[in-house]
Every structure is written in structure tokens, then in C-alpha cells.
Amino acid sequence: MQGFFLKKEFLFLVLSFVMLVQLGYSQSMNDIQNLKVDNLSDAQIEQLIKRAESAGMNESQLEAYARERGMPASEVGKLRDRIQQLRSGIRPGQQQQMRPGQQAGQVRQIAGFNMNPALFDSIRRADPYFDLTPEQKKIFGYKLFHNRSLTFNPSLNIPTPGSYVIGTGDQLIIDVYGASQQSYELTVTTEGRIMIPNLGPISVGGSTVDAARPRIRQQLAKIYSGLLGSNPNTFLEIRLGNIRSISVSMVGELIKPGTYTLPSFASVFNALYAAGGPNENGTFRNIQVYRDSKLIGEVDIYDFLIKGEHSTNVTLRDNDVVIVQPFRNRVELKGPVRREGYFEMKPEESVLDLINFAGGFSSMAYKERVTIRRATGEQMKVHDLNTENFSSFSLQDGDEITVGERLNRFENRVQVSGAVFRPGEFSIPEEGMGIRTLIEKAEGLRGDAFSGRAILYRTKEDLTLESRSVDLKGILDGTVPDIELRREDVLSIPSRYDLKEEYYVRITGEINIPGAYAYAENLTVSDLVLKAGGFKDAASNSYIEIARRVRNDISGKIAEIINIDVDPQLNLSSEDASVILQPFDHIFVRRSPGFQRERIVEVQGEVFYPGEFALSNANERISDLIRRAGGLNQFAYPKGATLIRRTEYFQPLTESEIKEQNLRSVVAKLTREGMSLSEAEDIALERIEKRLLDKEEAKVKMEEKEKQTLASRFRAERLQDVSVGDTSLVQYEFKEQELIGINLGTIMANPGSAQDLILEEGDIISIPKELQTVRMRGEVLFPTTARYQELRGFKSYISRAGGFTEDARRGKSYVVYANGDVQRTRKFLFVKFYPHIEPGAEIIVPQKPERQPMTPQAWIGLATSMATLALLISNFTNN
């Protein structure tokens, strides 16, 4: 019975755990202050967003709710970033690095793409009409008031106009000069007067400058008598200082209607610019100006846009009203004209005026007729308008005028192509033309022309092609009747070389400029060797080989092989040099069997003669090289010696690259000193530079890359396979050199032993001085470098570094010795055997792998499994 209750209690605990986990999910909104955003998955963040949306909260309200519930500000910021990442489709770890001060959320959505605001602003600055809609851009004149680089501010740096009407607030500057000198700066009062000291008020308000000038002179003459008379000696000048401001009302179809304060020099254009110009429904042809409730002028913006005239541009006064009415008659012009779009027409204007507004026809336009589509009361109607009616046809609102394109066809064209001196297009004169005349116009046949037959392509009435064989030689000789040409005829005259394969020969191997060369009749082997820059030093002193195609042989023979002897001076015998080559011959210049390029190795460190050495034979070993370097000196530490060897990923220079590198070094040395060169040096320099230029033109490097060895291709394929097939190795570093641990003491004591490795080209033997330290790295409390002490073990050095950290993986500790060898910690039963320590060693203690906490889903799965298991046990015991 007691066992039964224990089982029941266990089942109750498991089920309670499951319910608690699920309850945690249901109460995540109420317990939001305890949430750790970093521990939440994307699915949990999305679930939190859905719960907030179901509660009627947006993102900002969710953040406010979290703060009210006690969530720390740092967690609120993390939550905001995670929500933005999910909204933009960016997962954690995928965020791009942004400049300091640039917020990750500062992007604009344009056509579904995230656009950086700096890029967005640069596009706006580049296009002054970026903010306009396509329809607004099509309205003629609309751009005038929306160009950010164009302003209509009134110019104040102009001479005072005589017609300027003086008003309250204007400052008049009166200069008296001549026999008397005086200057007055007077402001017009609200009563329209100016006060001159010792003279009293003078009424100038409402008068123009020209009308006020004699009145002011008359009053000032009371003080300066020289202003009057037939021969005055004192003079008067009146100009404006600070001008007054006027108030103008802008009403009607404007972007920004309202009352504006403008300088008194302002015109209607200035006022329109301040109000943003007419909107999409506003007129550009009849802008009305009212003064004292009377119409005083009408402004037509087209006069300015088309003719540059300002005659209708009214200068405004205080309390003027500018009214922009809706347009009455707007039409659309489409097709090949200089300026497509919507144009506003007056009743007396015609199609000809509309075309002038559009800047005329473009070069592609069909000018003889336009098509007009017009909406009548019930349906649409089409008008075909010929040129003679352009000036008499009046347009209506909504008309759509379409200009057609000229036909893409020629009425008198024929063409000749191929083996003539001047192929191309020619015209057929009115009296007609034959093939003989066409060839004369093309300045005759080239020498390579195949005159036996040409082809005439003719376009039939149904626009299909037909071809005719032409006896060109007979027509030119007059033995065959000439053929009359028609429009769009094409005469094709082939070259003899178009009718056969292009011939070439190829030379490869130990030649200075290998490759393919154009075939020429009577070309000999000697000629081709000279053309290819001569033999290399590695060329065989026995023979070269020619592979020649086999023609008309069904015996199975693939190629005819011809061997040519070469003497030790790499000269051909007179008989072999005169061997005539045939098209597609391939000449192989073999490498001499005894030729070996020097192989360089290097010894660094504590030997008597460090530096580079050339291997004397293919079996030279480490001990041989150390003896050639004078042996180890008294400071050498043999246990720390290492061998650095190239891996299969190392890309050595080719022989041509090495030669080119050396030749460039020679050129640099000849030209570096800046002194005059001897005649021999000049010739040598010219010869080397020509050879380098020939190498570049022949693209020797590309040729040798194409002749990659099989091992090189396998190496490249292996790299590709690794990077593509194993994503865990994408970050793997393919090193071109690797360090090989050697025991130099044993090698020198036992030359030729298995440890005495055979040297390869590029090997570097590094022999350090005697080392006296041991380095500790990894999971120790104080990583440091300590002095080496004999008989001290692994744990002693760990103690000197403060001991292991809590995350140290002690059983995986290892030691890297000075020569590159590595020893790991070994374990037998419960005892660890740590590696021994030598001078120059490095102790590395790795870190324990980070344990990933179980997710709520995993806990739920575990609890469900346990509950199921408990139920099974309970059922089993009950039965």
C-alpha cells in the first residue's frame, strides 16, 4: 500500500511539473518582468508579439507595459531589437556592421527593399524632382516651382526703379552733393510722409520715385539754393534703403494657399514660388491679380517658359490678391516630340501652337499627320489631322494628341558585304543601278574575293527573303547580263578564306614564346623557332618532334611523327632547318634529360653559415645541409630545431615567372643608378625589355596555367570539395607551409637514419638559441611565462600560473615543445599522466565545452515522457 502511494505521489509531481511549464507560457505576459530576452527563441518572441496584439497592444505599448511591470531598461532595449530583427527578417548574428551613430532601424522601405537613409537622401539630392509623382512631372510648367536648385526670390541689389511706388515703411536715402554735402536717411511714416530736419513733412506715400523727386528737390532748395536754377551746382540723388514688406493673399488652386509677407519688390512669380506654385488642377495660363477689388493683370506662365518674357509679370503691392483658377482646357501630347506631357491651351490656340509648346517634333516623328482622340458626350471620337490643318484645328479639354513614328524602312537602300574595299549601304539612283555599278561604288573587289559566285538576298513583297546565285566574274567581264538591283537588296561576296579552315602551326615545350602562330607557305622549322624567340636553356640537345595530321589514312594511324636532330649548341642541321611545315603541325621542343633547375633550401639560426643553399643532389638530407652550414655553434638548442616545409597548397612560381622576375631585377639594376650606360648595356637593356614585352603579349602565364599538372588540378578540386561539401570546414585555413618537429640531436648523431629526412625545395631549417622559459596558456588563473627549472613537472608550472580555472578541461591538457612536437595528457584508471616539460615548451589547458541549457520545449518533452512512463508503471502495477 505504501508503494502504491509513493507511485501516486511521483505521478502527481510529474503532472504538476508539466502544468507549471504550460502555465509559465500562459502567464508570460503577466510575468514579463522576469523575462530574459537572450534566453527566448524567435518562436517565443513571435508568440509574445501575438499575445500583445491579441490584447490590443502595439510595439510601443508593449514596451511601456514591460516597463510598468518592472522589466529592466536593458531588457526592454533587447526586446525592441529582437522585435525589429524579426520584422525585417534578420536573425541574431546576421546584423550588418553599421557606422557609429547610425541606427539599425533607420531604413526606408522602397519597393520592398531596405534602403539606407544616407543613400535615400543622396538620391533625392541628385534628382531635384524626386518628390513629384509621374503625373505631376508630365504637367508642363509644374517643375518650375518644384526645382530645389531654382528660386524666385526678388533681387534687392538693383538700382532704384523710377516706377517704384513709395509706401509706409520704406526708407529713402537722399544724398545731396556738389557745392554742399549732406545725406538723409528717412523712413516713410504711416501717413505717407518723410520728415526732413528744419523743413517739415513732405508727402511721398503713393507716389513713384520719379514723381516724388521734384517735390523733395523743391523743399530742399530752401536750404540748398544750388539745387535750382539753370546752372545748378548742387545735385540730388534719391535711392531706397530698407524696403518695406507687403502682404499678399494667394488663393485658389495652389500647393500652399494663404497670406504671405513679401518684399515690396516682389512680383507674381515670387508670390507663386512662395506658395509652391499651382497644384495639379491649377491654371498656368490665366493667373489673375486683383488690387482694391479690381482686376489689374493676368499672368501667363507659358510666356516665360516658351519665350522668356516677363511682360505680364505684375509687381505686387500691399494687400494684392493673386487668384489661381482651375484650368479650363488641358490636353495631352504623346509620341516623338521634344517634350511630352500635359499642356494647357487657350481657345484661340491650335495644334501648331501645341507642337511649339512641346519644342517641335523629334527626329523620329512622322510629321505629316497626328491623331486626336476626343471624348464626346457619349463616346470617344478620333480625328486624323494632316499638316495643312495644324494651324486651324482648335483643341478641347481632355484631347489626347498622338504623334506617330516614321517607318523604319528605306526606300532606296542596297547593301554590299564581304570582300570589297568599302562594304556598307548605298543608294539606288532614280535611273536604277546594277551589280557592276554597286561594286564600283564599293571601290572594287579585294584580292581575296571569291569571284566564282556571290549571293544576292532580295526582300519580296510579302517581306520574305529569297536568295539568288550570282556569277560575279561573268557580270564584271560582261559575258553575263547584269542584274538590276531593287531596294533592300543585299549582295554578299565571300572571301576565299571564308570558305576554308584558318591555318596555323603550334610550338610548345622549351621555347621562349610558346603558342600558336599563323601558317604561311614555305614556313620552315627554323623560321618558326626564330619567331617563337628561340630555344630555352633547358631544351634538349638531342632532338625536337613534329606531330603532323594524317589525312586519307584509314589504317588507324593518328599522327605522323617527325624527329629533327639538334646539336649541343641547340642549332638545327641545314637539312632539318629547311623542313617545310604544313598546316596544323605541332612542334614539341623536349627538355633535356639531364637538365635540373637549382633547388633552394635555407638554414636559419644557430649555425656558423646561415642562409640559402642549393641542393647538390636529390637525396641530400638534413645532416648534410647542417654540415655544409658549418655545423651547430655553441649557442644552438638542437631540441628546439624545426623543419618548415611547403604543403600541397603552396603555389610555386613557374620557370617563366622566375625568369621574368630575374630579368626585371636586371633591368632595375641597370637603370637604378641614373648613370649613362655603355653601348653594350644599352643593347642588353633594349633586348631584355623587348623580351619582357613579348612575354606579356604572348600571355605566357595563361599558357602555363592551362598546362596545370594533374596534381595541381586535384589540389584545386580538393579545396573546392572541402569548402562546399563540409560546411564545418568553411573557416578552415589552408596553410601553404607547415611546421615539422625534428630531433636534430638524434639526426646529427645518426646521419642517414629514418629521422634524417630528405630535403625538398623551399625547406627551411630553423635552429633557435637555448631556451630558458616555459609558457602557460588557456584555462589557468594567470597565464604567464615562467623560468624553466629542471625536475619540475607539469603541475608545478600550473601552480606557478595560479592553478586551473573552474572551466579547465584538465584531462585534455597538452604540451607543445619547441620543435613543434605535441604530447597530450594520458589517463590510466583514475590517474592522469601529464607530459614532461622541456625548455621552450608551451602548456595549453583547453576550456570545457559550454553546456547548452534545456529549452522550455525540451523540458516539456522530458516531463511528458516521464508522465507517460509513470502512467505505464502505474497501470502495470495495478494489473
From TrEMBL:
<dbReference type="Pfam" id="PF10531">
    <property type="entry name" value="SLBB"/>
</dbReference>
<feature type="domain" description="Soluble ligand binding">
    <location>
        <begin position="504"/>
        <end position="556"/>
    </location>
</feature>
<dbReference type="Pfam" id="PF02563">
    <property type="entry name" value="Poly_export"/>
</dbReference>
<dbReference type="InterPro" id="IPR019554">
    <property type="entry name" value="Soluble_ligand-bd"/>
</dbReference>
<dbReference type="GO" id="GO:0015159">
    <property type="term" value="F:polysaccharide transmembrane transporter activity"/>
</dbReference>
<feature type="coiled-coil region">
    <location>
        <begin position="685"/>
        <end position="713"/>
    </location>
</feature>
<feature type="domain" description="Soluble ligand binding">
    <location>
        <begin position="331"/>
        <end position="382"/>
    </location>
</feature>
<feature type="domain" description="Soluble ligand binding">
    <location>
        <begin position="413"/>
        <end position="459"/>
    </location>
</feature>
<dbReference type="InterPro" id="IPR049712">
    <property type="entry name" value="Poly_export"/>
</dbReference>
<feature type="domain" description="Polysaccharide export protein N-terminal">
    <location>
        <begin position="160"/>
        <end position="224"/>
    </location>
</feature>
<keyword id="KW-0175">Coiled coil</keyword>
<dbReference type="InterPro" id="IPR003715">
    <property type="entry name" value="Poly_export_N"/>
</dbReference>
<protein>
    <submittedName>
        <fullName>Protein involved in polysaccharide export with SLBB domain</fullName>
    </submittedName>
</protein>
<keyword id="KW-0732">Signal</keyword>
<feature type="domain" description="Soluble ligand binding">
    <location>
        <begin position="600"/>
        <end position="646"/>
    </location>
</feature>
<feature type="domain" description="Soluble ligand binding">
    <location>
        <begin position="248"/>
        <end position="297"/>
    </location>
</feature>
